[in-house]
Amino acid sequence: MTVDFYELHFFTESLIKAAGTMIQRKLTEDLTIHTKKHAHDFVTNIDTEVEAFLVQEIKNRYPSHHIISEEGFGDTLNELTGTVWGIDPIDGTSNLVYKQADFAISIGIYHDGIGELAYIYDVMEDILYSAKRGEGVYQNQTRLPSRIDRKLEDSLIYARFHYIDKNLYGIKELINQSRGLGSMSCASLGLVALGKGTIDGMLNKGGMKFWDIAAGKIFAEENGVVFQGVDGSPYTTGEEKDIFCAGPTLLAEVQTHLKLTL
After folding, report:
1. In what order do the strands lie in the sheet with 226-229?
2. Is position 90 annotated in a ligand binding site?
3. 70 is in an annotated binding site
């Protein structure tokens, strides 16, 4: 089946902005908060209501499409055949709960396993990051320049701070050779920073669920970022394994270090 990605693009832009307006309105009301896997793994009524809205609108417009989403309103799939949406209605829920900032709506669209369109909407800043395969990355309507592929000594690495306590993959030595360490509790905005080149590399333990990384991977790859397992193996979107992602130059340096720690 032929997919009109331009029509799909305009529909998704409008949809994600409508969801952002919904979030802004909901933030003026009482917030219902529950925990999932652990005490700091939050889900709110906004997460579930926004996901329900997105899924319903997509199914109404594109009944043959499939959806993989965090809060369970989507489909159960074993493969990415046809057109598949990866949706995280609120990426960075803890940030929404604590400071009502630094969270995003994340939507990635794949066709037969290939990432085609990405949308990451920083709701509170009203900034929409987007990418279309082969056509570059955008901040609102402005195309962003190509990122700089820096060497390790000039690079800023993103990782979770508890990786340092455990010295995961000898990360202390890696950080000591770089410009420093940063962290962000919103995966999609972290991958936007990686794709823009405001950070240079990212280590993630255990990989990410499909909805966590569907949009961010498309965005970052479109501007030259490479995703690999820490052992140098290829990485498939949503595969749950330890990964490092960076530009080719930094990735080659880091992979040499990582392989020595395996």
Report:
1. 180-182, 156-158, 201-204, 243-246, 226-229
2. yes
3. yes
